RNA sequence: GUGAGUGUAGCUCAAUGGUAGAGCAUUGGACUGUGGCUCCAAGGGUUGGGGGUUCGAUACCCCUCACUCACCCCA
């Protein structure tokens, strides 16, 4: 094959596209009900927007970004995630002058240069939301509830909600110190990755899947025991609201998100492994109360999440949820040139009324036209040949029950079966 | 970046070193103007690419490319 898609990118074709559309329209419907408005952000940004927000030492920034110089030698990056561009836009367009909180959603492709596998791609799609301007835990709970409602609308019930609080700039250093202290005499027993993390990013040791590391960190201090007064009460209120909203969740004190900007609330929605492969996180997010300020905006607490569309769609397919594939209302089979013209006129009239009408082509035999009508799932066929032109009638046939009859050519477009 | 597996028809897969096949799909016919079911037929292949061993390679060896899965990381 001469031309193939690049590694880790893929075409989304029918019939899968209907699952995507269903997920997207459901997101729009639910998110709008919560007051989230769509914003469209660029796919390319200055590299430092991502480097500064996600964190210089994270894997995303260190080795996964599609970064290249443009013609004027500026460093450009294909967005690996949506939060940083939305924050940039929020500040650049002075959206903080609008009444708070401001709530947005976006949808589109993200890019990360990784080895592809099930549920992980170089170009992948996210639907994400970001809400700015209040630190109240009510917003955190509302957002989780919105996500739950969205998933329920799509008939997904087997997903698990995990929540945690990773504190703030005040309390996290204390916890980090306690963790380092706990691990100090065990560093040599950690896996090579984790001994590196001990230096750059000790919190990440918590979610290492290596079984010996899991053993070593048994009995390690928990972040939730080290939260400062404010973070602690924020977390407790958040949890009590989840209870009031009847949302079941696990507190997972080992869940550390991979991006540097997170503070306080973090959460993940995961699927059972048999549904989505090893990449089981379908949606994830958290608070980033300092990021707007760090980007040069006014101090503005914020929270958001992103849904991995490919992973979501994979689960929907595994669950065999049925999504309707649009079928034509009527297929117009014609025999001969004159009848072909008459069929074209009828089809055009129906289409202008928004009714999907298909035509037979290429002088195909009536049989093959009917076969095609059947394959398309058409409800009705109209049959027009010389006999019909003579008598001024159209033969109709209902392909679902096999009934047939005649109607005048003049009022074929009013045929009751089509409405 | 690391490791493993797989590449044969549009798809799913056979062919144990001896003439590349089946099912499904496609197109046509049986049924000259009536779909689905059935039967018949046809089209469709440089066996991913390159090299090697051999009288002979889809099969064995080497290289390469692609895909898949997993690690890592993340949505």
Tell me the name of the CATH homologous superfamily of the largest domain. Bira Bifunctional Protein, Domain 2
User: Cα-atom Rg, whole angstroms?
Assistant: 28 Å
The CATH topology of the largest domain comes to BirA Bifunctional Protein, domain 2
Hey, roughly how much beta strand do the residues contain?
15-25%
Largest sheet: 8 strands, mixed
Number of DSSP strand runs: 16
CATH architecture of the largest domain: 2-Layer Sandwich
Number of helices: 15
Low-confidence stretches: none
The tally of structural domains comes to 2
Give the N-to-C terminal Cα separation.
Answer: 46 Å
Shape summary: elongated
**CATH class label of the largest domain:** Alpha Beta
Strand line-up in the sheet with most strands: 1-5-6-11-10-9-7-8
* Mean of pLDDT: 92
Task: Report the helical percentage.
Answer: 25-40%
Protein structure class: alpha+beta
Give a description of the structure.
The chain is built from 15 helices and 16 strands. It is elongated, with a radius of gyration of 28 Å. The two termini are 46 Å apart. The longest helix has 18 residues, at 16-33. By secondary structure, it is α+β, with helices and mostly antiparallel strands. Helix 1 (16-33) packs across helix 12 (309-318). The chain folds into two domains: 16-171 and 227-318, BirA Bifunctional Protein, domain 2, CATH 3.30.930.10; 330-418, Rossmann fold. The protein binds one RNA strand of 75 nucleotides through residues 1, 4, 7, 58-60, 63-64, 80-81, 110, 112, 114-120, 124-126, 128, 193, 204, 209, 257-259, 268, 277-279, 281-285, 305-312, 333, 335, 365-375, 378, 381, 383, 385-387, 395, 397, 399, 402, 404.
